[in-house]
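> call design_seq(struct)
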């Protein structure tokens, strides 16, 4: 078993009268996972391709899978899940990244501004 240490720190000053500072840390015990790079070929939402297949990941009832995504290309990349005709989307500009829990109930699909956009990704559970 391995551990993935996830820490998010947000701090800002000069926005309002008080300084904002918050740190959240989560340590997840994982048995499966890794980071790799893949290209996203489609360039339109109507042709979005399955990026992560839900059936390939089976988190337990007490632990989510954690997905790491980083846009390593020059244009934007959008990731989405579709349930009952509605889309939930994450838009990543060049160099942006995201880390989030995923129940693996639906597939994550992707399309990009430019064909063959490079994406670094990992799934841990």
């Amino acid at each position: 078993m391995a551990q993935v240490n996830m820490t998010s720190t947000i701090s800002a000053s000069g926005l309002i009268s008080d300084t904002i500072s918050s740190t959240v840390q989560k340590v997840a015990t994982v048995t499966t996972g890794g980071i790799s790079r893949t290209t996203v070929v489609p360039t339109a939402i109507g042709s979005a391709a399955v990026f992560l297949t839900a059936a390939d990941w089976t988190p337990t009832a007490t632990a989510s899978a954690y997905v790491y995504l980083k846009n390593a290309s020059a244009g934007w990349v959008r990731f989405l899940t579709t349930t009952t005709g509605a889309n939930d989307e994450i838009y990543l500009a060049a160099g942006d990244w995201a880390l989030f829990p995923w129940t693996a109930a639906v597939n994550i699909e992707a399309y990009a501004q430019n064909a063959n956009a490079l994406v670094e990704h990992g799934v841990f559970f």
